[in-house]
Amino acid sequence: MTNQAAPGATVEAKRPWLLRYAIYSSIFAGWMVLIFFVTGGRSDPMWLAHWQRWDANWYEQIWSAGYRSDPKTLAFPPAFPYLMGIVAKIFSKSFLGTAVVLNLFAFFAAAAVISDWLSRKFGVSPYLLFAFTVSAPAAYFAFTSYSDVVFMLLLWVLLYIALDPKEPDSAKIVIAQALLLFLLPWVRLTGYALASWLLARRRAAFAVIAALALWLGFNRIVAGNPFYFLRAQETFAMQSGGFFQGLASSLAALLSYYLPNGYLVSWLQFGFLPLFYLAALTAVAIWLAKHGEGLLAITTLAILFLSHNQGAWRSVVRYDLPILPFLCLPLLGAAGSSPKSRWLKAAFYLLLASQIALQLIFARSFHSGGWAF
Questions:
Q1: What is the pLDDT of residues 112-156, one digit of tens each?
Q2: Which of 165, 289, 295, 332 is deepest in the core (most CB within 10 A)?
Q3: What angle do CA 225, 193, 174 make, to 5 degrees?
Q4: Where do the domains of the chain lie?
């Protein structure tokens, strides 16, 4: 099905790139300032250091001490910590400072790629897409040394390369896809979801199988067990189990917390939000499939299935960060021609406002040492 571009969105997408990126930069700068002030940056001399929480410590340990010093760190692939460590060493900067700078650049680049490409593809406003991308509840992880944002950028570059070129089957395009498909699982284990591209007859996806074979060998060398990275998850108090166990766990969390007693944040991140995004993104995947975007639908469903399992459920909103931009497409895409356009636009702005409010709540919690995805 051919997507009909909304007239206003088409004009916005065709503005000179310098003006368009100036608007992107203004939105991004405003978002960074908002996070800075909400997390107490103006009065906290240790503001940057306080972003070094939870998994960020393990990434730095992988770089400084390697995997053999503590094999349970095999829960985290090596590409991100070694990239950050090498860059930090070259420029004589701290691991955290380097990671924050590169993550912020990566997040801006990812949001720009998403906004430019999807605005042309679906005829929606690139600026609303950009604002929606940075509004994601877990977007504040760009301020710490987590690998999610780098993974997000590489995933969207891959999607663009796979779907936008005029000659998608040329040798150069296939090789570029294969290289990115091989690299992504070394950044985040979620990358193994992209083996699902074999269902779309993308032969480049065999690179994911090659990455898995090497990863299993690496685990065997370090820990004596090719599947040790699965056992390592349990050492971080992540329960074993698959998709349906995770679903049952989140349903139990949704029904068990007593909101007036101070459990609202826990109820949101362990119960409501995982289920909301699972349902909403599944619906979006169906919408994408109906609009002839089979590869995007497969990618969305595969990432959902891999991330929404028992072990990862407590962090699933963060794992879904790379695919959350899809969520606004049905609202914005249908608003231009639908008689219910006012309601669809209102729903979009309500979702946008809700997400940024949640992001600020969770960013403050994370920065102060609380668990937030």
A1: 999 999 999 999 999 999 999 999 999 999 999 999 999 999 999
A2: 332
A3: 110
A4: 7-367
